[in-house]
Amino acid sequence: MSITKIFVIVCLLLGFKGLGQSEVLFQKATEAYNEGEYQKAINLYNDILENGKHSAELYFNLGNCHYKLDEIGPSIYYYEKALLLEPNDQEIKNNLGFAQNMRLDAIDKMPKTAMTRLHDAVVLALTPDQWGYLAVAMILLFVLGFITYYVLYSATYKRIAFIAANTALFVSIFSVVIGYVGNRDQNSKNPAIIFEREVVITSEPNERSEKVFALHEGTKVNVLESLEDWSKIKIADGQTGWMPSESLKLLKDF
Predict the structure, then answer these.
(1) At a CB cut-off of 8 Å and minimum separation 6, what does 35 contact?
(2) Distance of alpha carbon 39 from alpha carbon 69, whole angstroms
(3) Using only C-alpha atoms, what is the Rg of the chain?
(4) CA 212, CA 158: separation in Å to the nearest integer?
(5) How open is the CA angle 85-90-95, to the nearest 5 degrees?
(6) How confident is the model at residue 20 (pLDDT cuts 50, 70, 90)?
(7) Are 48 and 41 in contact (CB under 8 A)?
(8) Distance, CA of 224 to CA of 201 (rounded, Å)
């Protein structure tokens, strides 16, 4: 047996071992949660994260643990991370809503135009990955319809196959475009959650500048840029300002 094959087998065995350990830790963490030992469950879930394993279910359970301990910032943080992985999961949305109701900040969102609402309704109907899967499925249907068109003899059936194939091709191209737009929109945003009880937002990246407003634990912001130890953020109502980077945690740090 060659050294290359031995190396591949060892890597596979180590991968299966790590997966098994994560499953055991997840089960122990769930048992701790059911027994009301929330901090113990958090420690076990974090051990899984340190092993490089993460999932929407894991982040959702971490959010539940922190919520039970009245830790608003961490609970919202982990619910939001779970929602990034499963954006259409209603249970995650419900629990996130409960946690958000415990925040001190009530920020009104900027009103959306009709075009923006239409854009969101279409682009956010599926995740970028799901739009990609749909595009691949439609390409396969297009190929199948194309083959069927040349195999059939009946003019009626050939017409149906021709229309079906072209429809599948159109849907595939549409899915690729929408998936690209959705992925671009996602990459243009850098969301984060504030972890400080209260943080003062300033007009410039230094403590001597004008104090613009204050935000509190659990508030979601979008990080526009960073400068040394400061981050420029934007909140839902459109206001911007600077705050210490250590007072927030990025959501896309998987």
Answers:
(1) none
(2) 8
(3) 24
(4) 67
(5) 90
(6) low
(7) no
(8) 14
Instruction: Give the tokens for residue 212.
Output: 């613009």
Q: Is the pLDDT confidence value at 3 over 80?
A: no
Nearest to 194 by CA among 59, 74, 42: 74
d(CA 18, CA 16): 5
Q: Count how many residues are written for the chain.
A: 254
Which CATH number do you get for residue 81? Answer: 1.25.40.10
Average pLDDT over residues 75-91: 94
Token readout for 140 is: 């396969």
User: Residue 253's closest CA among 57, 66, 78?
Assistant: 78
> Which residues lie below 8 Å from residue 80, measured CB to CB, with a gap of 6+?
96, 191, 193, 220, 251
Looking at the fold, whether 96 and 120 belong to one and the same domain comes out as: no
Contacts 24+ apart (CB under 8 A), 205-208: 205/230, 205/232, 205/242, 206/230, 206/242
| Domain end residue (candidates: 100, 131, 154) | 100
Host domain of residue 92: 3-100
Are the CB atoms for 87 and 124 separated by under 8 Å? Answer: yes
Backbone angles phi, psi at 223, to 5 degrees: -85, 120
Residue 199: CATH number of its domain: 2.30.30.40
Rounded average pLDDT over 145-161: 90
- pTM for the whole structure: 0.78
